[in-house]
Records
---
Amino acid sequence: MHRRGFLAAGLATVLASSRALAQTKMDDMSMPGMGGHAGHDMAAMAQDAVILPEGQVLRDLPMLANEADRPGLFRARLTAEPAIARFAEGRDTPILAYNGMSPGPLIEAFEGDRVEITFANRIDSEASTIHWHGMPVPADQDGNPMDPVAAGTERVYAFELPEGSAGSYWYHPHPHGKTAEQVYRGLAGAFVVKAKADPIPAEYGDTVLVFTDLRLAADGSIPSNSMSDLMNGRVGDHVLVNGQKNPRLSVAKGARRRLRLYNATNARFLKLAFDGATMTVIGSDGGLLAAPVAADEILLSPGERIELVASFDRPGPVILYTLGYDRGWMGPGRPADAGLTLLTVDVSESEAEAVPQLPARLRPIAQLAAPVLSRRLVLTETMAMNSTGMEMGFLINGKAFDMGRVDFVTRAGEIELWEIVNQADMDHPFHVHGTQFQVIEHERDGAVSKPPYLAWKDTVNVARGETVRLLLRQDRPGQRMYHCHILEHEQLGMMGVLDVMS
Ligand code: C2O
Ligand code: CU
Ligand code: CU
């Protein structure tokens, strides 16, 4: 039988069997007997009943207040705990929140600062951690699954932000086996490291846009992951911007805005374009590019960030919307991904005050030198039936993640070439902790192409059948994770451990 056919049949078997968990979920939804693509269809039906308000004024994310008593120190507390959100009229949604909000508060600190954040885990009987995605923090401060913070306890994360580290980072939990769920229930926030001297004109502002992906059942609750979610990664029904659906932003004609776009969804690929504004890419995951690059559309895979300058030169409504992108989908129920309006910008007739031009050079980026060695990481997907149902596996070099195993040993300061080979049927956004890397080429069907610009990145999409080569250097000793940032794939094994020796 063809692989996809087998898969769908296998799913139907699992859901139709009398497994207590599957049965309970179906009874809850009062839709017994649904087979196959249950997860997504149930959600789609629920979506008919649950309408989220649109067109509210875009809110700025509340900032995490700095409680330090001296300059150069950022000190604060983050508490993860259950909370109730109100996404839809008349319905309470139990979520997980940082300091009562989702997305969590925006953290803003400066290059050269020391950061001390006390993390309190008040999630009911679940360990958690805070991982500082993309940030150059010591391994033992990076919220690895090996360093869980037990429910009801707290710990301090402390690190320095080196010079040159300005960029658009984020934070989210990383506990063993629970990352995907804690994130889709609401735990994720943006961490912006500001440059002391920033070449982007202050008149452009600095707006953080965090994309998350919400699925609501008819009663307002967030359903658990279905089999389809585990395979494909969880795609929700409502893409939210800073927690709001299609919010509105008003600008004057001629305005330029600096936007930091975050894909904080578990598994939704966002191919984005503006209708009515022009985009210039100025930064990637790890800060500014060497020079601005004009773009018509942008593919932001789960975990990635991009910095843009949007120019609003024409009055009237301008939308930020999604284009279709086929990232590979197993079984039925592929969600519609094209034509979603994420943000509406009202551009007024009145002219903005003249603003400075973008500089032609933003900062120097030196290409990493010749690697001392190269590694090959092959991504595959497997599936097997066992006594409890279908088991999907997402593997790197034939192995599923094992917290007690070191997959690679490297030396701090040495440049390596990593070749990520996707031999699977889905795209996998590949992420490495603890450093920023440089993508040097993509290869597909024997054709090699260079990326359009040199950039510092911590997450790169490796499309189905593609090989991505990158140069990477770890500067701090300790264990680092690398994994697919479709969080369900990370959970099902597509993760490894790199041990960096000093
Ligand atoms: Cu945002 Cu290990 O990841
Ligand atoms: Cu990370
Ligand atoms: Cu993946």
---
Amino acid sequence: MARTRVIVDTDPGVDDAVAILLALASEELEVVAITSVAGNVGIDATTLNARRLVELAQRPDVPVARGSARPLNGDPQLEVSVHGADGLGDLVWDEPQVPEHELDAVDLQYRLITEAPTTIVAIGPLTNLANLLSRYPQAESLVERVVIMGGASFEGNVTPAAEFNIWFDPEAAAAVAAARWPMTFMPLDLTHQALLNDEDLAHLRGLDTAVGHRVAAMLEPYALFHDEWYGNRDVIMHDATAVYELIDPTAIEKQGVAVTVETGGEHSRGATWFDRRRANSNSTTTVGVTLDNDRFASVIRERLARFA
Ligand code: BDR
Ligand code: CA
């Protein structure tokens, strides 16, 4: 089987953690790096969390490189309440032994995309990808594909207009959306169909492995947050949908679009416009529309059970 070579660009983040573990467990993918970006928590914490996760997965061979500490214009505004103060639900971890890579995220991404066809899975704010495009303009034609968790058509989750990853750095998102690389977005309209419920959490806990225990423990405060915010404990696995799409490209129905990002506006900064009109039906930019939650949850259960 031809494996898809992927870089995971991420701001872990509880749902990022599930996405990273899903990628590392999946034989369809070859994870060649994890690159951190500020988002859910600051860059020190997201980089530390990425190192914790490769160590939890017993994959110290996967390099972790530090990315951008702040959005292109301005200072980071952090979402500490959603993922805990440390980004991973405030559990106790041993200090990871896996070092940070000597290159920064963008230089490592560029090195890897020049070596072989590579897909970037971007599940945090898009600052690193915007910096990749400005530092290495040839990246636009070198990258095989970009799969992004970000955006919303119906409703945002930070403001009525904006989803978190886009809202955090709209200028970066606008630059990435304007690039001509093949690209797929997983917006909130899709990710809200990808849920794990209390039975799934009990299943993960019952695996009786380090990964099972940690993931179930991380997801517990995330479920409380969902209960308060959405009125039930089902946790939304935003970021895992982007990895899921790469594992099984038929699992998510997609639609050709043109994407623009609002960088101005009094109420709409960070909004994404997915132009779904027929003229865009054959576009190389697509947006995820539907997935089957039972199938998704069973893949998460089965893949996370692969860790010893
Ligand atoms: C996105 O924001 C973060 O809180 C999640 O990790 C995900 O990437 C969802 O809006
Ligand atoms: Ca994320």
